[in-house]
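Quick one: structure for this chain?
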Amino acid sequence: MNITNQHFLKDSELETKQITADALGEGKLIEGNTLNVLAKIDDDAVNVGVTSPPYNKQEKQKGWLVKNVVYDTYKDAVPEPEYQQNQVNVLNEMYRITAPGGSFFYNHKTRWHRGNMFHPMDWLRKTEWTVKQEIIWDRVLAANIRGWRFWQVEERIYWLYKPIGNALIGKELRSCDAKLTSIWRGAPEDGRKNPHPAPFPLWLPARVIISILETETPGVVIDPYIGSGTTAVAAKLLGHKYIGIDRSETYLKMTSDRLENAPSEMPKIQAELALHKVEITAQERRSKGMNMGKYRPTDNERQETLFENSG
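Got it. Here's what it folds into:
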């Protein structure tokens, strides 16, 4: 394992707001409780975050697949009000450490317990974030094959935005990024190749980082539940600094190994980069008077309409 003192930190060794963007080097992996560690990060220190927290699935109580989602050092089973309040607290700390104009992409899902549905918006609306967009991740695979409801193959990715002043909309996405739409289709990471119980596919954080940070000055990317390190690998391969937090030393070692061998995953990054291309931008279309995507009748259609009206 290639975890060095410069790269790997423990929550207990850190003081409040000790982690700053200037002191990150290439990046830092921090072992500890997410909420405690976030308190050690300076205000406005990061530019973009991507994460998927534990979902409070109650582990073995729901569905035959859930028995496989068992974490190394964390029991994913707490009273739902306690879970939601913890998420509000984490999200608000994430807001504090994100620079104005920055974004946080938060992957979660709708859940049911004894017929009651828990939706991520139940607690997202209680945070300081502006909810800029809800993206549907079509995972293709069903998370539960029992027939109580139509098979749930989707999860949600919430684009949370920290405004600059009162400008809630923020800057416009490039055409090559926006064209990827609000439905992202792609299967989860193959569990046979990644021992973490719920890993991201690499393209997902890569898509976020490419779209939000583009190819500008290297930024700081954070994943407050780093797991097997997918977000950190994407950040490193795209030229950005990273912060990864997890309470499991096993998962942090897994992340460190992946970072050491990150070049081997570059083909996946290149495949995602290839999707972020357009032949002509919207601005170029507009300047040339070309179709901007709205329906415009052809000359023949206009002529037929005139004949119809003349009767």
